[in-house]
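Many introductory courses stop at the sequence. We go one step further.
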Amino acid sequence: MTAPVQDHPASECVRVSEVLARVGDKWSIQVIATLGEGPRRFNELKRAIDGISQRMLTLTLRGLERDGMITREVTPSIPPRVDYTLTSLGLSLLEPVRALGEWAIANRATVDMARSRYDSRDDRF
């Protein structure tokens, strides 16, 4: 038997939605998954994540750092070396992200068939 669901104030729902928006963003998921393989430099991440622009990667990294999912470590050198690493919070998100990715791969064909059926219906509008 599960515990009853508690009513949450609207402000709490907004806060949860903000977190879900960050961790559910397609680029954030890919950055988390890539950093799950180990620390990476900016250009390594850009090469590993197909289709992400430099600006979008910068914004995504800043958001993930702000939310405590990754750390940015600057090593003084010429040029400076910057490495991105998952924090313990980011690592805790890695398992659900991987599970979601595996689910998407396993169900891609089923989703494609459902889309085709829907798109071919006459009663959609």
